[in-house]
Amino acid sequence: MKKTDTLFWNDPHIAKSMLEAHLNPDLEAVSRKPETIDKAVDFIETLVSKDAKILDIGCGPGLYTKRLADKGFNVTGLDFSANSIAYAKAHDAKTTYLVQDYLEMDFENEFDLITFIYCDYGALVPEDREKILKNSYRALKSGGQLLFDVFTKYSVMSQAESCEIDISDGPGFWSGHPYIALHGHFIYDEGVIGDRYAIYEANQNRIFNIWTVGFSESQLRDEVEILGFKVMQTFGGIEDRPFDENGELLAMLVEK
């Protein structure tokens, strides 16, 4: 797995396109539908007391943080996208929002619960997965918990390889100017899928590599336990569905 050097999240046009995708209730490309988010927040509410401090890393435009804050929790949202954080701040005065790379966050013994939602963990290269777990462990109080989700290995390996081309004469997802976008969806090592986007414009060419790692329960358990976490429960999604190895999602609640 090779990280993309190009700053995907900080490209102004792509950031705008991503925000629009986040806020579209009919899409599940970058966020889940509102009714699914509501169920997830209702479940999260059962995990902690009302005086709990919650940190949502990769919070985007605040779809979960605002709901949690409205329920009375002390919430902090952290995201690398200044565009998403600006939207979140404009629509939610109760939550503390920070523009920051979660790989660089430096909290210590501060939160009762950290949430990391929509399978971002599996989009990280192995060394960054280790880093986010270490950062989260340090940020949690003793007995604090981390709740996160990934795609199952079954769901990832059930996909087929494909190639697509998108020719845009004007503003589109990738640029405000005409472009050609080539998208390759490839299966690499067992449980790893790479989406490679090559964007060709008149004045520049860009490459984005987006990875998706699928996990078995035992693989994910090994990654968290080696860094000191205790696995409390596994689910088939943040909404507290029963876990199925042949399902789409694996959510895990781990404790410091």
From TrEMBL:
<keyword id="KW-0489">Methyltransferase</keyword>
<dbReference type="Pfam" id="PF13649">
    <property type="entry name" value="Methyltransf_25"/>
</dbReference>
<protein>
    <submittedName>
        <fullName>Methyltransferase domain-containing protein</fullName>
    </submittedName>
</protein>
<dbReference type="GO" id="GO:0008168">
    <property type="term" value="F:methyltransferase activity"/>
</dbReference>
<dbReference type="InterPro" id="IPR041698">
    <property type="entry name" value="Methyltransf_25"/>
</dbReference>
<dbReference type="GO" id="GO:0032259">
    <property type="term" value="P:methylation"/>
</dbReference>
<feature type="domain" description="Methyltransferase">
    <location>
        <begin position="54"/>
        <end position="144"/>
    </location>
</feature>
<keyword id="KW-0808">Transferase</keyword>
<dbReference type="InterPro" id="IPR029063">
    <property type="entry name" value="SAM-dependent_MTases_sf"/>
</dbReference>
